[in-house]
Amino acid sequence: MNHIIEYFMATAGSICYLLWVLLYLRFHRKFQHITDVINPKEFLFPQIYFIGFGLIEIFRLDINNEKFKSFYRSLVELKGEDLAKFYQLVVLGAQFTYVITLILIGLFLGSITDEILFIFLGVITGFALAFYIQYDIKLKLNARRNNLKASFPEVLSKLTLLLNAGLVLREAWVKVAFSSDSLLYQEMRITSEEIRNGLSDQQAISNFAKRCALKEIKKFATIVTQNIQKGSTELTNSLKLLTIENWELKRHEIKRKSEIAGQKLLFPIGIMFIGILLMIMVPIFTNLF
């Protein structure tokens, strides 16, 4: 039975090794222009991502498929619409590369040590790395959304105040955009730059809503674009109501987070209480016996 397992591992390892070599010979140079520009601080071992890119091409995987739409929208938020397709390809290529390469390493180590455990470790590590890439993107996206959400009521207040003082939307937008350096203000500067480069106000604000895909910001963008289309003078009043609504939402969010933080403190407090009880009770029982 052991000989059968050894034979299987050696055969599977040889096939995987041959596949890796063939992928290298066929795709290394073809995708070098992509692997050379991937940031190694952001992605691990990008030089070998040609493996994943090659498999995507061989299996004709359609990254524009509906299954990838949600992931693509997340990348639009994080990287912008211009870079989202590139990062989608890089992430999928990285995932395929890690799985194939680590399974190959596991099979190789298993065949020379006669330990099937290395195969399981290779499979688990490969899929764990593939999962971690998407998990890390999710963490970054949540951090970005929280940052945007925290700044939004303040931005609304400033914008409403300037519009109420008589400034037109473009002037008020620019003044607010350069009044701070946090993430939302940086996104507003990108919008100002787009308008300066000839993009219409409506399209620039629509792009702003795509990059900052919070429901509150989408609602704000809808109100602004509708007022631009209709030439309505009610924009200031609409933004006043939206400002009040968002400050109320922020107050509730702060309250919710403080409650969660209080609940998290209960566990360490309980542990400390048990520790104090043990410190008191153990000497007492020791003296009794």
Structural class: mainly alpha
Largest sheet: none
As for the number of domains, it is 2
How many strands appear in the DSSP assignment?
Answer: 0
Provide the helix percentage: over 70%
- Specify the number of helices: 11
Mean pLDDT: 85
What shape does the CA trace take? flat
What does the radius of gyration come to?
28 Å
The fraction of residues assigned to DSSP E strands is under 5%
Order of helices and strands: HHHHHHHHHHH
Poorly predicted runs: none
Description:
- The protein is mostly helical.
- It has two domains: 2-145, no CATH class; 147-262, Receptor-associated Protein (Up-down Bundle), CATH 1.20.81.
- 81% of the residues lie in helices and 0% in strands.
- The protein contains eleven helices and no strands.
- The longest helix has 54 residues, at 235-288.
- The radius of gyration is 28 Å and the shape is flat.
- The N and C termini lie far apart (59 Å).
